[in-house]
Amino acid sequence: MSEKIGEQSIKFSEPPYIIGAASICGPKEAEGPLARYFDILSEDPTFGKNSWEEGESEMVRQAVLLAIQKANKRKEDIRYIFAGDLLGQLIASTFGVKDMDIPVFGLYGACSTCGESLSLAAMTVAAGYADHVVAATSSHYGSAEKQFRFPLEYGNQRPLSTTWTVTGSGAFVISNQIPDNEGEVCITGITTGKIVDYGVKDSLNMGACMAPAAADVIYQNLTDFKIKPGYYDRIITGDLGKVGKRILLDLLDSNHVDISKEHMDCGIEIFYNKEQDTHSGGSGCGCSAITLAGYILKQMYQGDWKRVLFVPTGALLSTVSFNEGQNIPGIAHAVMLERR
Amino acid sequence: MSEKIGEQSIKFSEPPYIIGAASICGPKEAEGPLARYFDILSEDPTFGKNSWEEGESEMVRQAVLLAIQKANKRKEDIRYIFAGDLLGQLIASTFGVKDMDIPVFGLYGACSTCGESLSLAAMTVAAGYADHVVAATSSHYGSAEKQFRFPLEYGNQRPLSTTWTVTGSGAFVISNQIPDNEGEVCITGITTGKIVDYGVKDSLNMGACMAPAAADVIYQNLTDFKIKPGYYDRIITGDLGKVGKRILLDLLDSNHVDISKEHMDCGIEIFYNKEQDTHSGGSGCGCSAITLAGYILKQMYQGDWKRVLFVPTGALLSTVSFNEGQNIPGIAHAVMLERR
Which among A277, B5, B167, B288 has most CB atoms closer than 10 A? Predict the structure, then answer.
């Protein structure tokens, strides 16, 4: 029987495995430092479709199907899809998975959605509700800028605190079977985040909005499981960027927790930030998802890292709430990955 | 151990109970036929706040706190909130629950979200991941029209196939404890819906978009559990309205399933459709949520109904997907309620 641990965590008695993972990305990511780890690299930001939104759905579709294929499963073997994206009413996910004939749970946790989907997928498999499920998330620079900020054609200036939304989709098959492919990585536990609101209102400084939530859930994970940061080889946040990373380390330090040796941020890794002009780093659901599916799992399969705390981070805003003067609260969900 | 049943269902070996339920509604619902069943009726459509969106968040906040109170629990007893609404990036739920200091799973299933949140809440409790969790959903006429259609000030004509988005929020405490209040209603099983796309493109005829998904999940529930419609005292869809109801009954009839005796639709019940000029009926996440929290549970507590299949129905669109010419697919999730 899986256990409730501490205040916000679950420890799985029979940890579900990631038996398939796939990543797809756009042209800018394909020129970044992690490019060689991604499965599908597209030179076309609309992925052969008519709009960014349709292109984002196409990424989701391809990532999900490839993850299932890499898991040596068929579509019919998948009992549920847990999917979400950044767009209003989740249209990227909806149109990406609608023809797959698989029951769907739609999720929204802003850029923390990859953590939310992996958490619910693992909970579902560990409870015996399904043998194999898919967790999928996506983001797209064009559709996200249109959704949250300005039309790209307007060419607004980007302050140095901004991050660049990653065009990409990552999908994972979570299963109660031991994988027969390159490595055995399982989800041993999760810590589900609360919404944390520090009163930040700047939608061009998402790192500052999300860092307090990341600090909160990382601290809670260490507390619930009674472990130190050194338990993990890496503690990897989703898309805090350089500004958010600094805040995260400071906040944890003020609670006497030092994760500076273990910390890595997908947003900082995914672009050559200076050369690619991405300022504080990459962001979006796709940022943490493809970094996990491509780079992080590879390091674990190779044996370089045994334990990773994966912490996608989300900023909870819409244009409506932003224009009405609301704050931008953050949320982050922690997923404990372990190579067996 | 809970069981996977058939292709899309779960049967809970220890069914979680609904130990607290609360409903809050706006002025139009307060003049409808179900008004006496709702807990909080407001004459102010902004619920004392500055905007429809803030008002919707206020409804969520009040509904969640009241449900917890009616369950004789404290906020600290709740391990997770499963919440969603219709607005882009779930701002109604986010700002409604952000100060509660409870871990949050954000969900989106359009107007099927009440079924999605109850399903995941029941799965979580039945698996032993939590003792008590909250499922909450909301919708608001003003915020939804602004989000999906025209500014209210524009005064567009509403064809007879339109439904009227309910201003309301319903919240439920799902628990592994037998309730000590008015009655014992539990969730014995769920059937999770697939996205069903019949190619409908009319955002002013949501019933037609959603009815195929409702037919699909009801048929699957009956098939997975090997039961006939008469097993239930009522099969209750969320917000098909009059147009959608006709399509639902026809579609099931063509599969040789007749639910005409058991079927009820929350959208048809919630307004005096002729007198209140709501055309095909009510709709929105709040429609099924407050009808369940208020009217349906009351009938079950009183002993009038023993078994209910509760099937909230959702239309998956955004203004972006709609304006780009996409179809409006539907989804529906079925929750099996039983009085013990």
Answer: B288
